[in-house]
Inverse folding.
């Protein structure tokens, strides 16, 4: 039995399938990323996974516990895209109010979270007057308050500065290590996916690819060698491969560094400069969906 | 559920503006009474002795009904706000179920309704005792408290049913304005029910408001009426009660007990309607952002 799984998840709105037969298997402590353009069905999938939306077809369970039961809710934490806490209450009042709604409240852990997320200074401030970054740190604290085993992050970093993003990931990675926290993330930030153990790529409500990031890169994102020639690039024809010529530049897909070095060696007298670009998550995305992710 | 009730109460009393706005209906009826309503009603009743001792508690009965209507509507507004701004989605991830969350809105609203009626009652009793030498009797306290609880329950359920159909804050503020204005007419404070055209009376009698006001007035006016009408025939007293809404004419004037039964009846019917509507609307309340 998997730690968390979703089988044949499908959601129809007015006969239109928004999510089509999504299957998901997550082991304890894994960091799973959902990658997809806007409108791919990521948020709808997450809403079903956390029990806020009933799937048209499909089953979801966490360690055998059915979605939407009290036990299930106790084991999950969610950071929504929007900040949903009470704007008129202070940070402390918000956190205490939510903590009172769970069984697993441990005041020592609560204090640790506040210190880790550097919330001490803003505890008495109204949630509604906080900056976006401060609010997000409070949202993360709220999601972790009852020590969930599975944390859902629905595009948590949108609109945040790099410092806040780093802070959030530093805290989450620490909890992952110490508590074996499992994370399911949907994001637009490709660098966040780089740390994921397993990636699902969604488009038009379907999983179009899934694998570890390394394997996805091997399959879909090849390294690129970009060569800038001194004169006209008459040498292009010499290289028999799928290449792309733009002005005096030549973009080559290479399978290994050795291959790139050999090409560069053959053409060394004609080259003005060159650039080696490793395959990225964005390439995977472009290859699979034909769209830029952002 | 206690945690949720505490949250709702804290949100309600944290915003002074919200609380005072919810009392606007009551404040307006009180001020209008002092400015001109008392005089204009009194001018038609010049033959009734000790009229002030009757009109002051009469106004109190109506104003308490308005308070019950508007403060419960305002408090239940939190339910709509939570739906609109997504807080409900966050609450649904906690231990309490959807029905517990709804229950918490209801219970905190009933509490708020009782507290606000208590405040209004205390203020008006003090004012009229000081200004008009109104006699405040201690044996009012218990029956009035019971009626306050009953009114709070009735209007919480009625407003719960009405607000089930409202999903955003814009419509909520329109709803509150309408309720605030209508409450004074339905509780027959701006104008005694006897002066209202029959068709409008018929409409008003389909709501719990006139029975609620009548119930308050029957308790508060028991002694003043006995004093002022001790020399009058029962028919004269009945006519007066009917025209002032101290008893509503349904094949004879309603009594304290029939008013209580009617209010309980309204509550039961409304609860059934809420259960039906909640089941239908449950799926639609989780607004996507």
């Amino acid at each position: 039995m998997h730690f968390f799984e979703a089988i044949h998840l499908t959601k129809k709105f007015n006969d239109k399938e928004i999510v089509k037969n999504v299957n998901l298997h997550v082991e304890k402590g894994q960091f799973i990323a959902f990658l997809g353009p806007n409108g791919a069905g990521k948020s709808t999938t997450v809403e079903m996974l956390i029990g806020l939306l009933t799937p048209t077809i499909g089953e979801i369970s966490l360690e055998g516990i059915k979605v939407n039961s009290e036990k299930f809710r106790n084991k999950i934490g969610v950071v929504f895209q929007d900040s949903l806490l009470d704007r008129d209450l202070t940070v402390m009042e918000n956190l205490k109010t939510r903590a009172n709604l769970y069984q697993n409240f441990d005041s020592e852990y609560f204090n640790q979270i506040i210190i880790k997320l550097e919330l001490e200074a803003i505890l008495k401030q109204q949630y509604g007057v906080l900056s976006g970054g401060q609010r997000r740190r409070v949202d993360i604290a709220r999601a972790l308050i009852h020590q969930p085993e599975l944390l859902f992050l629905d595009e948590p970093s949108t609109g945040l500065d790099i410092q806040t993003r780093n802070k959030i990931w530093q805290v989450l990675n620490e909890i992952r290590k110490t508590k074996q926290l499992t994370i399911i993330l949907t994001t637009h930030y490709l660098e966040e996916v780089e740390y994921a153990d397993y990636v699902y790529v969604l488009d038009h409500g379907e999983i179009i690819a899934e694998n570890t990031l390394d394997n996805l890169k091997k399959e879909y994102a090849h390294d690129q060698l970009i060569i800038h020639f001194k004169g006209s690039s008459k040498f292009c024809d010499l290289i028999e491969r799928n290449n792309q010529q733009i002005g005096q530049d030549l973009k080559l897909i290479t399978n290994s560094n050795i291959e790139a070095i050999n090409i560069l060696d053959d053409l060394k007298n004609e080259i003005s400069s060159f650039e080696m670009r490793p395959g990225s998550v964005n390439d995977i995305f472009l290859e699979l969906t034909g769209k830029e992710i952002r | 559920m206690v945690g949720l009730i505490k949250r709702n109460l804290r949100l309600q009393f944290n915003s002074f503006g919200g609380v005072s706005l919810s009392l606007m209906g009551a404040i307006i009826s009180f001020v209008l009474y002092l400015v001109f309503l008392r005089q204009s009603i009194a001018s038609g009743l010049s033959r009734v002795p000790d009229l002030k001792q009757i009109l002051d508690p009469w106004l109190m009965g109506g104003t308490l009904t308005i308070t019950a209507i508007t403060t419960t509507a305002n408090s239940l507004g939190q339910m709509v706000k939570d739906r609109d701004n997504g807080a409900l989605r966050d609450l649904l991830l906690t231990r309490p179920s959807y029905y517990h969350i709804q229950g918490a809105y209801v219970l905190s609203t009933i509490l708020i309704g009782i507290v606000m009626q208590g405040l209004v009652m205390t203020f008006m009793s003090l004012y009229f005792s000081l200004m008009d030498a109104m006699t405040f009797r201690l044996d009012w306290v218990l029956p009035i408290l019971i009626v306050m609880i009953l009114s709070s329950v009735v209007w919480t359920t009625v407003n719960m049913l009405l607000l089930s159909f409202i999903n955003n804050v814009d419509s909520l503020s329109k709803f509150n304005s309408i309720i605030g204005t209508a409450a004074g007419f339905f509780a027959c404070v701006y104008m005694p029910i006897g002066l209202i055209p029959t068709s409008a009376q018929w409409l008003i009698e389909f709501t719990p408001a006139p029975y609620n006001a009548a119930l308050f007035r029957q308790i508060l006016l028991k002694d003043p009426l006995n004093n002022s009408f001790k020399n009058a025939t029962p028919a004269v007293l009945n006519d007066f009660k009917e025209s002032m809404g101290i008893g509503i004419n349904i094949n004879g004037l309603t009594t304290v007990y029939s008013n209580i039964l009617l209010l309980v009846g309204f509550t039961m019917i409304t609860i059934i309607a809420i259960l039906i509507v909640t089941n239908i609307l449950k799926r639609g309340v989780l607004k996507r952002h």
Summary: Residues 222-278 of chain A form one domain. Chain A has ten helices and 14 strands. Chain A touches chain B through 30 residues (CB under 8 Å). Chain A has a mean pLDDT of 85.
